[in-house]
Amino acid sequence: LALLGLLGASAAPRGRGAEWLGRIRGGVIGSGSEAGCKTKFIVVTGGVISGIGKGITASSVGVLCKMMGLRPTAVKIDPYLNCDAGTMSPFEHGEVFVLDDGGETDLDLGNYERFLGVQLRNVSNLTTGKVYQTVIEAERRGDYLGKTVQVVPHITEEIVRCILDVAKSPVDGGKAPPDVCIIELGGTLGDIESMPFVEALRQLQLRVGWKNVAFMHVSLVPKVGSGPTSEQKSKPTQHGIKSMRSLGLSPDFIMCRSSEPLQSSTQRKLSMFCDVPEQQVVSVHDVSNLYRVPILLAQQGVARLLAERLRLAGAEPTEAVAGADELANPLLRKGAGVLDFWQQIGDKVDAIREAHASGGRPVQPGSGVPLGTEVTIAMVAKYADGMDAYHSVVKALEHAAISEGVHLEIAWIDAEALSEDGDAAASSKAWDALKAADGVLVPGGFGQRGWEGKIRACGFARHGAVPFLGICLGFQAAVTDFMRDPSGGNNPRANSQEFEEENGAANVSEEDRSVIYMPEITPGQMGGTMRCGGREALLERGSLARRLYNNAPAVIERHRHRYEVNPLIIEGLRERGLKFSGVDTTKTRMEVLEVDSHPYFIGTQFHPEYKSRPETPAPVFVGLLRAAAQRAAPRASCTERDIFFSLLRR
Predict the structure, then answer these.
(1) Catalytic annotation on 217?
(2) Most exposed of 13, 284, 392, 431 (fewest Cβ within 10 Å)?
(3) 609 is catalytic
(4) Would you call 538 exposed, middle or buried from its count of C-beta atoms within 10 A (0-12, 13-18, 19+)?
């Protein structure tokens, strides 16, 4: 291109070369004007192995952008053929994260929302299936005017169009478009299914300009050996970068994942052999807690270097700061309070852990519960072996535990083991764990396996005055338990319509159905048919739910279900003590239940975990941890006293 520019004065180019040179001279290619978008882009890729931490790295980079006073948004690219994550197995893919607009997406979008404090849209999760479906539908309509539809340019152009659409759409509640769009390419760079996306990202940089796109490559730096002879190996990363360059992409930053800080010799070697400036070879080693990752990156000057690389306004090169205390850089103070918040929450998490480990627990003002008090929550779940299946629930519990200053322990209990026909040994172990817990949580799920065990867990918590939270299917299990109970509905035949066919039930009366299909749902069709997204729930005056939500008369929470409480049984259950304190705007669909005579017994048809944030934990989770901590504190102090007198007697 430089040669063509030099020759341009003496030899006018012709044909296609003339067109391209004219566009370059006119500032169209590489200036961002073709895209009509002023947003900067940060692309995060991964190499060596999958599951290396690209999502947390991308989210942490977004936090750095907020520290710099920028408005970030995010895109997650998943190269699988599914149109969305809605029909994928939680065992294989983890949880389905639901957005306000009803999009069923990858769990990484939950990380983005929790870290960045934004409300993403369905288009923020880009899959191969979604892209191909759009292009094929356009071809069927004749939009391509008879042209041969190909991966390049039609599929790649659709990918770029989707990314630019996200980059122009506000996600922070305001009207201004984002300043930075963070793109995470799922999987490992070089996978055959991700090739169209790699080519599209190369084209994106060409369209919006090199100065507007930065590439971060996350790679594993393994440590071989132990003791003084151990060595960090750079060769896997070197090969990963070589593969990346062969695909047309070149990294600006290498984010080195390792168990220990990156050695200076390894950093120099990677810089030399990968042709990346040494200060842009970043150590992303294990830290004491997740909330310290953005601070770790800031301490190494990633924010400053990104600002210089992307030519951000007001972020001129600051060589004087480099090598000094990067956290003192005024650039990180443009986002009011962001840096301070992440420092404080990281410190608090460490303080809770240290107080729990040392036993020296100062009493917290307000709650009266000692800092670091251990609180055990029994998670009665169908997918008890897969924590990713309940990723947002776990994060919401963590947020609430941090807020309350307690040390969280989760006892994972297989719901199937609590049923009457479960294995005797497994059942005994499960019941022992349930009885030892300070609180019980029954999360959402699908399918009959574990259903009866969840119902029994609800009954145990209600009769035993154990703090309880039921979410979605857990809410429906609590209704079914109360309907079966002799002191409640006194109907042992009560069950959900969802499981009638699996049980072979025939001639079931409507009054025996605790839970029914929603009228707008089409039975038998799975993908994209549920009641999803943010919906308003009206809260009863004076109820526990309303107090938890700071006396708000209504809340908007996210849903994901196709069944609801049977309207025919509601009045009968209310008369027997089950209080439905939250309803939808039509006042016919039950959203929240509670039991007044119980220390803390609440269930929600919606999923409060999807909107939980470190700075604003979900209220019903805070209530659960607070009630469980009050139950755990006397038990903990009694245990310590018993140990003291036991030692004294010895």
Answers:
(1) no
(2) 13
(3) yes
(4) middle
